[in-house]
From TrEMBL, chains A, B:
InterPro entries: HTH_LacI, LacI/GalR-like_sensor, Lambda_DNA-bd_dom_sf, Peripla_BP_I. Gene3D superfamilies: 3.40.50.2300, lambda repressor-like DNA-binding domains. Residues 1-31, 353-375 are annotated as: Disordered. It comes from the Bacteria. Residues 23-80 form the HTH lacI-type domain. Residues 365-375 have a biased composition (Polar residues). SMART domains: HTH_LACI (SM00354). Keywords: DNA-binding, Repressor, Transcription, Transcription regulation. GO terms for molecular function: DNA-binding transcription factor activity; transcription cis-regulatory region binding. PANTHER family: HTH-TYPE TRANSCRIPTIONAL REPRESSOR PURR-RELATED, LACI-RELATED TRANSCRIPTIONAL REPRESSOR. This is LacI family DNA-binding transcriptional regulator. It holds the Pfam family LacI.
Amino acid sequence: MQESKKPSRRGRPAAQGARTSRPRQAEVARAAGVSQATVSLILADKKDGAAFSDETRRKVLDAARELGYVPDPAARRLAAARNNLLGVFSFTATFPTEMQHSYYPFLVGVEQEAAARGYDLVLFTGSSSGGAGAAGPDALGRVRLADGCLFLGRHIPTQELRRLVADGFPAVHLGRRDELEGLAWVGADYVSAGREVVGKLADLGHRRFVLIREDDDAPASTDREQGFLEGLTAAGLDHDAGTVHRSADPRRDITPERLRGWLAEGVTAFVAEETDTGAAWRALRAACRTTGLQVPRDASLALLGSPPADLSHEAVPTGFDIPRTQLGAAAVRLLASLVAGEDAEEPLVTCTFRPGETAGPPPSVRQQPQAQGDM
Amino acid sequence: MQESKKPSRRGRPAAQGARTSRPRQAEVARAAGVSQATVSLILADKKDGAAFSDETRRKVLDAARELGYVPDPAARRLAAARNNLLGVFSFTATFPTEMQHSYYPFLVGVEQEAAARGYDLVLFTGSSSGGAGAAGPDALGRVRLADGCLFLGRHIPTQELRRLVADGFPAVHLGRRDELEGLAWVGADYVSAGREVVGKLADLGHRRFVLIREDDDAPASTDREQGFLEGLTAAGLDHDAGTVHRSADPRRDITPERLRGWLAEGVTAFVAEETDTGAAWRALRAACRTTGLQVPRDASLALLGSPPADLSHEAVPTGFDIPRTQLGAAAVRLLASLVAGEDAEEPLVTCTFRPGETAGPPPSVRQQPQAQGDM
DNA sequence: GCGCATTACTGATGCGCATTAACGAGAACT
DNA sequence: AGTTCTCGTTAATGCGCATCAGTAATGCGC
């Protein structure tokens, strides 16, 4: 593209072929025989309504319509010192090829709430697959162009985020994130939800439980475990009522043998943590099937979260639903508050219990199942 | 910079409690001990490289990094430059609650290509469900904040878009859109794809066809019909080889009676257009099932597009796949060209034939099926 | 007919940036 | 020593708009 060829005319470098650029307030003003300031004030329709005569108002509005005036958003935002932009930054691609891994449910809520509040969203592509601005240590810096930013994903670079937060940049993390002092976040109340699920199982009569969880210490996992344990306590059960089993690879780890072992110990209810891939849940179901267990006749299963999308045609797991859409909306609300300078406290979002079809009363008498059962 | 008076504070209306607003070029300049103009020039990194001493350059860059400087997109825009932002404007919510209706597959490509070219994306929420800025006749005007904008969806307000285009604003529509003179678009080559499908069916021996299409005249429908007809011609068949059936509500329209009627006329291959809901395809399958037809033994079915997601566990329809991800990427490429001032021609994107399992040779002898068949 | 409040509007200013004319200080040349 | 060049940098300007301090005009009381 031609750079500084023509010495004159600084603005509008190359882009346009537009001969008739769209009208400015100044032109409307001229057409209406008033000043630019008048046009601005009238079009902004300030509440001090009586400030202008109806005559003038009419002239301006007519002229604006006549000329097809449309305000320049860039100028508007520049003058107003904010741009009504909220950033969304995820450290994996926002739209991964496999939709199951995406933040889609969150984004639904984010978009709705942002729209309701008159914000537009900036999707920072910095992180996605080998993008241009990808690696740079200041990749995160770009988010400053928005009035505030939402962060998604597990592996956000702490240092840079800390910097943003320290600068007073409004930032909200979707999902709990305590380790970064001062970072606002919204999260689901996994503790309560986990407690509730265990409570329901206990109500059904179960007395011994196993929790299968991931082997890292993400808050989402830790909270679920805590809820699991609290549920036991709340049900008046003692310590060995619950076994917490950590597994880095449930598929090879949750073997029929192990399952039988637990059954032999009197376990009747199995609780799996929801993971990205649903591995724990899959492994559990597979083990049950292999073992010939009928669910929920011979054993009850619960899933602390939602089942993977590809299992949607199977039996609905007992467990809870994470209100992802609401979470997204709540995050935007919180972020909007921060941007506005208020520092609202956003409570944890409540998960809703999902009765499902995989839990029932425990078998009064444990018997080794003989035949292949279906679920 | 101190003005004569300072009591007023006009900018920054009420918004911030921010002690540290994000840094401006002026602050970088102060930190580096140079002028704002120097900062601007150095950060712009003009090719007249030797213009600044390495010393100065380094100081400026360091200061900028130190302070976390990020240019204000609005100001950049206003000063007639680029801001590396591409807009995405969809006239239904970009993230509808039901994911099947979403532009997700397109967005995957859009994000990838945008990232690869160093653009961030602005999702304009103007249109989504009851948003704040929803109705306003200038809802579209906001996109001017970005360097260019992508438009998705069937029902874009033509008037406003025309205005943008007339003003020389870089705009690309995803999907064919001829009626708006001068609007760039990228689309799938439904004509060729439709022709190919019919060709394959003809190769299998089919001689009489029915196309079930929507009753409006969207380009996507018209193109498919054209492809269908061209396919017949290419196969050396005459006019009455193909029946085009328009249906506004296939579910009630494609009755078993009607199906039998067509069969009686010697039709052996049924081609359905892909629609949002997959209604035509569903209706066709349902009618076959009710009639007891076995597919593809008794009749062949083809779908001009992809099946609805919830039918993913059924037999794969013969037909073609729309390369949505590639389309999204192509749209971004085209838009980027426009922004750069080039006016590249982007060809139609080719759909790929999908063999599927619903087409086979026609029955040599037509017989009324007696028993319930499965598909 | 003067002071004073109100009304109706305009002038001036700056938001943050890109751009360019101009400037000071050598270096190179006459 | 004076002149011209070149290099490195800065002052000045304006993009389109919102905002606010003024100002001219009018009304009102006394």
